[in-house]
């Protein structure tokens, strides 16, 4: 599913967080948003996921405006996992994943054989089958995050939006999450737009990277095109050495903060 | 299979609901038996069956049975109201008696009772308007980029206190026309009969039906506004409908039994400990358990100081907390 964002302006109250943002996510690709804290990455994801109304501009899914769509119909094509999510620790993995069938059901949400099949398949894909009767409260951070992603997958979306899915996880769990995302992308053709803080992780799993700063999109391109010292200096104000690994993936080693040119002038 | 696994399966949760129903029936029978005139179970069943017009019949049909039924209706309504509020507000402390929903309904009801005594049928609608207005007010007071749970409870308690003071003042000033202040603020079923049931049963049935129809949406809402929106739910609309349902149930209860506290807070928690937090099973379970609590406590209240009686609210506050605390300590429970 192709996603296009045009001339988007959005914010909270009078405060403008995004000003004239444009973005294209090609069908079947993984695109990651990068930028310093407060640059509007999460806001952009929320506007695309219709959690926040834009002040102006368009979000188009296969050419159709998201904010004019029926919200349940939208939930069958697009799933979003916000950064902060909470569930009663009393519910089980199975129940949480089952909630992903909500947009496919009506009334009391009683699941039919097909729904149960989808849930079972999603549990297999996310390697949660063994844990399906465990309460959320008893899971580790990585397992819990996989359970939430499983819930969004049970919606059977074509486009998945993830806001910092690896935050607070240890390094192995972070890799588990991005490998899962990559796997879903390859096997199901799922289009993914996500926010990540770890540049090396982002370069490893994304087809394209997009940088944001000061309410605008600054750069968009392949990891090789984006992971460059001058771009990192501009966006994150850091000095970095860029190397390419044996598998051709670029990675960066930060060496210090960059002097802000505006401070120099003062 | 362990009890924990069983009690989370479909069959397990249905069985526990039926077990609660059986307990409620038993409590009703026991409650029918006790009072100033002691009746044997055989006598009760015979009277219920034959409907002869003698004294036991009069006592059972015109005094005990309606009072017990009303107690069950009130307890069930308050418990469902509490379960809904706990879900909508994502707060284990939310209950109609705590966050002012009952107090708002009570105040509006008292005003109608005193100002327009000839319009008895307006009592519940007025109480409903008061309860809903209070629920929305408390929710808005606690709103600041999302609802902060602590601010919600604090504003609720503050609003409840203020509205309760208004009610008490009005009742004290009109002691000759209105029922006692104490009865209203503690909650009682004393001298209630068929007219009160007629007054509220339809509202309660409608409220319960609405709650059941939205039970799955309440599950989704508990995941947070953003996740619920992402799943395709119209969050604001559903939240308002659920608040209205909770307000209706609490308002109907307060109209006939006063500010009966506690049952709305703890009945949902106790049932959640037993069968988990899926509202499709929890709401009927809470209704049955709430009904059981009120019927049992009212029976104890009638027997404890025979021939005089203690209001059900007093017994509830005496017996409820220890039982609740015991359950809370015993289970590894996270609301």
Automatic annotation (TrEMBL), chain A:
Topology class, membrane: Peripheral membrane protein
InterPro entries for the chain: AAA+_ATPase, ABC_transporter-like_ATP-bd, ABC_transporter-like_CS, P-loop_NTPase, Siderophore_ABC-ATPase
CDD domains: ABC_Iron-Siderophores_B12_Hemin (cd03214)
Signal peptide residues on this chain, from the entry's feature table: none
Record key words, sorted: ATP-binding, Cell membrane, Ion transport, Iron, Iron transport, Membrane, Nucleotide-binding, Transport
Segments forming domain ABC transporter: 3-239
Pfam families tied to this protein: ABC_tran (PF00005)
PANTHER family in the record: IRON(3+)-HYDROXAMATE IMPORT ATP-BINDING PROTEIN FHUC
Listed name of the protein: Iron complex transport system ATP-binding protein
Protein's organism: Victivallis vadensis
Automatic annotation (TrEMBL), chain B:
Membrane topology qualifier: Multi-pass membrane protein
Keywords recorded for this protein, A-Z: Cell membrane, Membrane, Transmembrane, Transmembrane helix, Transport
Predominant place of localization: membrane
Listed name of the protein: Iron complex transport system permease protein
Cellular localization per UniProt: Cell membrane
An MF annotation (GO) of this entry: transmembrane transporter activity
One Pfam family in the UniProt entry: FecCD
InterPro entries: ABC_BtuC-like, ABC_transptr_permease_BtuC
Gene Ontology cellular component list: plasma membrane
Domain of life: Bacteria
GO BP term, pick one: siderophore-iron import into cell
Stored PANTHER family: FERRIC ENTEROBACTIN TRANSPORT SYSTEM PERMEASE PROTEIN, FERRICHROME TRANSPORT SYSTEM PERMEASE PROTEIN FHUB
Residues passing through the membrane, by range: 66-85, 97-116, 122-141, 153-173, 200-219, 240-266, 281-298, 310-328
Protein family (similarity comment): Belongs to the binding-protein-dependent transport system permease family. FecCD subfamily.
């Amino acid at each position: 599913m192709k996603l296009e964002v045009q001339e988007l302006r959005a914010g909270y109250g009078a405060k403008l967080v995004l000003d004239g943002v444009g973005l294209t996510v090609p069908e079947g690709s993984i695109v990651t948003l990068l930028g310093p804290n407060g640059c509007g990455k999460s806001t952009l994801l929320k506007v695309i996921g219709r959690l926040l109304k834009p002040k102006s501009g368009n979000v188009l899914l296969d050419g159709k405006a998201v904010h004019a769509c029926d919200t349940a119909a939208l939930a069958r094509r697009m799933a979003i996992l916000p950064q902060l999510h909470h569930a009663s620790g009393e519910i089980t993995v199975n129940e949480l994943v089952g909630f992903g069938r909500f947009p496919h059901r009506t009334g009391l949400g009683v699941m039919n054989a097909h729904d149960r099949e989808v849930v079972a398949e999603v549990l297999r894909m996310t390697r949660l089958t063994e844990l399906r009767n465990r309460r959320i409260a008893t899971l580790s951070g990585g397992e819990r995050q996989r359970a939430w992603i499983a819930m969004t997958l049970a919606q059977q979306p074509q486009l998945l939006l993830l806001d910092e899915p690896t935050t607070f996880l240890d390094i192995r769990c972070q890799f588990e999450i991005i490998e899962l995302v990559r796997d879903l992308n390859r096997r199901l053709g799922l289009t993914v737009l996500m926010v990540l803080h770890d540049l090396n992780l982002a370069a490893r799993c994304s087809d394209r990277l997009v940088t944001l700063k000061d309410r605008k999109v600054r750069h968009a391109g392949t990891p090789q095109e984006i992971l460059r010292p001058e771009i990192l200096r501009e966006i994150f104000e850091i000095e970095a050495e860029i190397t390419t690994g044996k598998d051709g993936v670029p990675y960066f080693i930060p060496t210090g903060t960059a002097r802000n040119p505006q401070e120099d002038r003062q | 299979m362990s009890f924990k696994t069983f009690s989370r399966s479909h069959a397990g949760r249905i069985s526990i609901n039926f077990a609660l129903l059986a307990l409620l029936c038993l409590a009703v029978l026991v409650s029918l038996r006790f009072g100033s005139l002691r009746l044997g179970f055989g006598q009760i069943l015979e009277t219920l069956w034959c409907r002869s017009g003698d004294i036991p019949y009069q006592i059972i049909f015109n005094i005990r049975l309606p009072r017990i039924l009303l107690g069950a209706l009130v307890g069930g309504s308050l418990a469902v109201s509490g379960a809904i509020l706990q879900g909508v507000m994502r707060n284990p402390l939310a209950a109609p008696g705590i966050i002012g929903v009952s107090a708002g309904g009570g105040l509006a009801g008292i005003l109608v009772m005193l100002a327009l005594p000839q319009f008895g049928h307006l009592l519940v609608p007025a109480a409903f308007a008061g309860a809903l207005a209070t629920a929305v007010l408390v929710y808005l007071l606690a709103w600041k980029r999302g609802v902060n749970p602590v601010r919600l409870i604090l504003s609720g308690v503050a609003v409840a206190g203020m509205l309760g003071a208004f009610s008490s003042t009005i009742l004290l000033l009109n002691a000759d026309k209105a029922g006692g202040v104490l009865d209203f603020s503690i909650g009682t079923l004393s001298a209630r009969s068929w007219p009160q049931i007629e007054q509220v049963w339809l509202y309660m049935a409608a409220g319960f039906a609405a709650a059941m129809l939205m039970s799955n949406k309440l599950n989704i809402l508990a995941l947070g506004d953003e996740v619920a929106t992402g799943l395709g739910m119209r969050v604001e609309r559903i939240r308002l409908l659920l608040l209205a349902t909770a307000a209706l149930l609490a308002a109907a209860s307060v109209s006939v039994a006063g500010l009966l506290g506690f049952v709305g807070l703890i009945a949902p928690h106790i049932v959640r400990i037993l069968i988990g937090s899926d509202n499709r099973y929890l709401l009927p379970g809470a209704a049955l358990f709430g009904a059981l609590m009120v019927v049992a406590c009212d029976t104890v209240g009638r027997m404890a100081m025979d021939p005089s009686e203690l209001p059900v609210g007093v017994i509830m506050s005496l017996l409820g907390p220890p039982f609740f605390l015991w359950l809370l300590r015993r289970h590894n429970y996270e609301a």
